[in-house]
Amino acid sequence: MNLNIKIVLLFCYIFSQNMLCQNLVPNPSFEYFTSCPSGFSQINSAVPWFSANTYGTPDFLNSCAPTGLFSVSTPNNFRGFQNARTGVGYAHIFVMPTIGPSDYREYIQVPLISPLVAGQLYEISFYVSLSDKSRYATNNLGVHISSSPTYSVGYYPMPYTPQINETSIISDTSNWQLISGVYLASGGEQYITIGNFYYDSLTAKTINNPSSPNFFSDNGYYIDDVCVTPVGGTGCLAALPINLLSFNAKQEGNNVKVYWKTATEINNNFFTIERSKDAISFEEIGEVKGAGNSHRILNYKFYDDSSIYGITYYRLKQTDFDGKYSYSQTIVADFKQDNDLILFPNPAKTYIKVKHSPSDNKYYYLIKNQLGIIVKEGILNEDYIINIEDLENSVYYLTLINEHQIIKSFKFIKN
Fold first, then answer.
1. Residue 64 — φ and ψ, nearest 5°?
2. pTM of the full predicted structure?
């Protein structure tokens, strides 16, 4: 073991009450190493981290490495660009292939400074960022906790169930996203393994970078700041800006209620609520003031009164007073559609009509082209017919609005 790591472990053992040492993960941000990485697959240099499967080749990236096309430096490297969340180093693993063998997986594993205590709750966390050249964004990044090292032969998913697992698709390539959960220790656990423990068929994905060259296109994530700390202690997670207990969204009438709960807040200025239709491109839709500093459970809520019917994704952006920010996991809300509204004909030549149930509703409509430019707008007549003879042959999007509420959107073709 590297002498620097031995000193760190000894320091943390002797001064166990020191806040910096409440984290049971040694070398949590991949700053210490036996040698600067000179190429791919050198996670073992970031002692005491190592690869958990024989054919897996996780990478160690650090600013000490030279730059270039196949660089393992930071912030520029063979997977794209990302500043380390802390320090100058981080790890990288592939969690789903786009070329080569199906179900290919990479895992990183580390022994904890001391075993977990039976009956004690621990909060386990790490930060991830999707690498720029990943063709897909996926879910199922998780942590398996064990009392002894876990190995597997080959490159397939390891035959273990992660105790902490992120079921939302992680698509952010610009920021670091926190993955965390609480674990009740049986006693004696001393190893954690990070990766995707599920087969391709059980892993959800969305397209991130369809133009990524084949050599770089496999789905990969950067990993930084891994933490295991007792719940209620003064370790690394206690120093996080907020401890988010829950985050949910549900339909209430013609709105979507977004609500969340925090256990602690430190230097928390405000929350920004962001919305997306594809879980990739998000827009800011509101802001809620934070509590600053708090050590009691607080409840927050925000009503999205411009919700779009169908599946919608939400996430929280938490910003400190010093301008630093972090993101929550992404959640889903299903805003039920009014099935009485139907657009026909489609494709259309001279007009489109909205079939509807008898009502006194008056709808304002917008028609946008594929660039999002409004090409036609007005109030639906009593026959719910819109003349489109003056539109060029193309694809368009019709949005119906009732009292400032988006009621339904349609895609149609003019030919």
1. -70, -20
2. 0.57
